[in-house]
Amino acid sequence: MIAALDKALQGTADQLGMDVDPLKLMVTLFASYPLCGLMKRLPDDRPVLKKLFCLSVSAFYLLGVFDLGEGVRTLLVCSMGAYAAAKYVRSPWMPWAVFVVSMLHLMANHLYHAWYVNPDGKMDITGAHMVLVMKTTAFAWNVADGRRPERELSALQRDRALRALPPVLDYLTYVFFFPSLLIGPSFDFAEFARWLDLSMFDEPARTRGGKPRRRIPRSGRVATLKAAEGVLYVALWVALTPTFSAEAVLGDGFMTHNVVYRIFFLWPLNIVYRLKYYGAWSLAEGACILSGLGYNGRDDKGRARWDRVRNIDPVRFETGQNTFTLLEKWNMNTNKWLKSYVYLRVTPAGRKPGFRSTMATFCASAFWHGIHPGYYLTFVTGAFMQTCGKYSRRYIRPFFLTPDLSGPGPYKRYFDFVSWVAVQLGIAYTVQPFVILGFYDSMRLWARVWFYGHVVLFSMMIVFSTGVRKTIEGRLRERSKTASKLDQIKYEAEQSRMRAGHSPALGIPDTDLDELREGVEEDMRELRKDIETLRARSRRTQSKIASA
C-alpha cells in the first residue's frame, strides 16, 4: 500500500465520519474515468500498450489502494487454474469442473474472510473474486462451445464461442480489466476481444489533417451523464439511510405501528437499499462506456448505443409489474451469466427449463453471493416468487386481455396497477434477509409482517397445483377458442419491443429467441393436435346423431 495515499484517505474518511474502505472504493471508481480516457487514447495499432496499462492500473488498485496482496494471489490462482483447464482438458465436462471448482474456491474464500480474516466486514478480495468467477466460468464454457459443432449451439453460444485459445496476456487483461475489477460488470471474452482489436466498432478509421483518428466513437458525454446519475443515487442513499434502514425495522419502535404500516414500510426501505447499488453500478458502467467497451452498435437513426454492459435499469425496475421485469433489470450482467451458464446449462437437451432449473439457478446465485443464511432465504423464496409470477402471467393475466389475446382489455390498467403493487411488495419482502444476512433477525422481521410473502406464494403454489389450474385453462380455452400460446407470445414480444426500444425481443439475451421459436413450433404442434381432436370428436358426435 502507498502509505501517503492511505494516510490521506484515512484522514478524509475521519473528517466525513465514514469507514475508509467505501471511500477507497469511490476513489477507484472515479479514478477509472480519467484513466479510461487515457487508455482509449493509446495507439490503436499497439494493443499491447492497452493490455499493460490495464494490468498496471488493476495492480495499483489492488496493491496500492487496498493492500490486497494475498487477494491478488487468490485471483491469480482462480484465473490461471481456469485457463489451464481450458487449455489442457478436452473433456466435455471441463466447463462443469471449472464451474464447480471455481465456486468451491469462492466459497472457501467467503468462509476464510468472514470467520478468520475479516469478521467485521471490511473491504476484502471476495467482491473482485465474485466478478472473476463469472468471467472464468463463462470463459470455460465459451472454449467448450468452440469445440462443438455449430449446429448444436444457440445463436448466442455461436457468437461467444472461442475456436482458439487466446494468448495468456489477453486473458489476464480480460479478467483484470480495471473499470470492472472490483464490482463488475462482467462480460464475455468474445466481447472484450472485439473491443481490444477494435472489431466491435462498425466504422472505419478516420483521418484529421492526414493523421489517423481513433475508431472508438466519442462517449465522454454519455459517460459523464452516467457518472452524474451514479453520484445522485449515492447522495440519495446517504441522505435517506438514517430514516430507512434495517436497524429501523428490527428496533422496538417498529412494532408500535400496525401491520399494514409495517408491510408498506418495507417498500421504500427496499428502494433505499437499492440506491447504493444503483450508484456504484452506474459509476462502474460509466467508466466502461468511456473506455469504449460499452459500445453496442448504432440505432436506426445512426446514434451510438452504449448499453452493452448496462447492469441496472432503475426506472424499469421500480415500475416493474412482474417478477420477469424485476429479475431482468436488476444486476443484469450477473443475471445473463446465471441464465446462459447455469439456467440453460443444467436443463437437459431437448427439454424446456422448469422449476428445477429455476431452483438450481437461485441456489447457485446464493452460493455465489456467500455464506450468510440471508442469501439463501432470499434466493429460495425468489425461486417460488418467479414460479408464481409465471402462474400469474399464464393463468390470470389473459383474462384482462382481449378474447383473442391480441391487446389489453378494458380492465387491463387495473390489473397492471395491482400487479405493480403486489410485485413491489413481494420483492420488498423477499430481499430483506439479503440485507439483514442473519437467520434469526431475518425470521424476526418476516414474523413482524406476518410472513405475508410466504402466505401468498404458498397459497398460489397450492392452488395452481390442484384441479383449479385445469379449470382456469378450460375457461381460457372457452373464452378464446381461436387463441393459442403463440398469440400471447407475439403480444408479449411486441409490447416488450415497444417498451424497450432497441433491446432484444422480450428484453432477454439472443439465445432465448431460439428457444422462443422452438416453443412456438411446439405450441403450434399441440394446437394442431387439439384441433384434430376436436374435429374427430365433432365427427363422432355427428355420426351418433345421424345414426339416432
Task: Give an overview of the whole structure.
There is one protein chain. The chain has a domain of 197 residues. It is globular. About 4% of the residues have low confidence. It has 548 residues and is mainly alpha-helical. It has 24 helices and two strands.
Strand order of the largest sheet: 1-2
**Element-by-element helix/strand order:** HHHHHHHHHEEHHHHHHHHHHHHHHH
Low-confidence stretches: 497-520
Q: What fraction of the residues are assigned to beta strands by DSSP?
A: under 5%
| Largest β sheet strand count, sense and barrel closure | 2 strands, antiparallel
User: What integer is the average pLDDT?
Assistant: 84
| Helix vs. strand class | mainly alpha
Helical amount among residues, as a percent range? Answer: 55-70%
Give the end-to-end Cα distance, rounded to a whole number of Å: 97 Å
Q: Looking at the structure, what is the overall shape?
A: globular
Number of helices: 24
Radius of gyration: 26 Å
The number of distinct β-strands equals 2
Provide key terms for this protein.
548 residues; mainly alpha; two-stranded antiparallel ribbon; 24 helices; 2 strands
How would you briefly describe this protein structure?
This protein is mainly alpha-helical. It contains 24 helices and two strands.
Q: Helices and strands in order, then pairings?
A:
Blueprint: H1 3-16, H2 20-40, H3 47-65, H4 69-88, H5 94-117, H6 126-146, H7 155-160, H8 168-175, H9 189-196, E1 207-208, E2 211-212, H10 220-240, H11 246-250, H12 259-291, H13 314-318, H14 323-329, H15 332-343, H16 355-369, H17 373-396, H18 412-430, H19 432-436, H20 439-448, H21 452-463, H22 468-479, H23 485-500, H24 511-547
Antiparallel strand pairs: 1-2
